Amino acid sequence: MLSLLVSAASGQEIVSAFPGQDVLLPCTYSRPDKLQPRATVFWRGKDDINVYDIINNEPDLSSQESRFNKRTRSFPVLYSQGNFSIVLQKVQLTDSGPYDCFILPVDFQLRVQLNVTANRVTGEEGPDTGRRSGSAAVRVNPLSLLLFLLFGKTVLLYEN
Ligand SMILES: *[C@@H]1O[C@H](CO)[C@@H](O)[C@H](O)[C@H]1NC(C)=O
Ligand SMILES: *[C@@H]1O[C@H](CO)[C@@H](O)[C@H](O)[C@H]1NC(C)=O
């Protein structure tokens, strides 16, 4: 089945995926009370390209880089909770790189590193078993279950 690895290394989120998968690029601000009444949030990729804008609590895709057209969504009902995470659909190798979430009213910046790696050989479970055996001491985060329920994918969250 599909898998997605998310790990936190030296304060930077790393999201790993295979081509064709949908990934969540997380960005949540823990003090949503400071974002009232409306927030403006910019998601930017490598070389400052426009991935997603939220302007005054409304998605605004008018300046979105064309290669992200129809491949992104956010969760407007969660903005009031400070959650400005976006989903990037059908990722490709070329989507790998840094994604920065800027929450303007509070000068908050979070970097998510997306790592799309070549797909496993069809019909083999090789990469999965390799990862599992290689990470015996790693704890699986309970968020995995939540992400599984939300996205119907096998998601493993590792904490270093
Ligand atoms: C933000 O929303 C996304 C989409 O529902 C969810 O997967 C994620 O867990 C949320 N983040 C937090 C910190 O609650
Ligand atoms: C991306 O994933 C591959 C395979 O899991 C790994 O070897 C590589 O170190 C990762 N790169 C980054 C920047 O995390």
Describe the fold and architecture.
- With 160 residues, this protein is mainly beta.
- It has one domain: Immunoglobulin-like, CATH 2.60.40.
- It has 2 helices and 12 strands; from the N terminus they run E-E-E-E-E-E-E-E-E-E-H-E-H-E.
- A hairpin with a 5-residue loop joins strand 4 and strand 5.
- Mean pLDDT is 80; it is low at 1-10, 124-140 and 145-149.
- The structure holds 2-acetamido-2-deoxy-beta-D-glucopyranose (2 copies).
- One 2-acetamido-2-deoxy-beta-D-glucopyranose is lined by residues 14, 16, 113, 115, 117.
Which features would summarize this protein structure in a list?
mainly beta; three-stranded antiparallel sheet; 2 helices; 11% helix; 36% strand; binds 2-acetamido-2-deoxy-beta-D-glucopyranose
The gist of it:
This protein is mainly beta and 160 residues long. It is built from 2 helices and 12 strands; from the N terminus they run ββββββββββαβαβ.
Task: Describe how the helices and strands are arranged.
Elements: E1 3-9, E2 12-17, E3 23-25, E4 41-44, E5 50-55, E6 58-59, E7 72-74, E8 86-88, E9 97-103, E10 108-116, H1 126-134, E11 139-140, H2 143-151, E12 154-159
The protein binds 2-acetamido-2-deoxy-beta-D-glucopyranose (2 copies).
One 2-acetamido-2-deoxy-beta-D-glucopyranose is lined by residues 14, 16, 113, 115, 117.
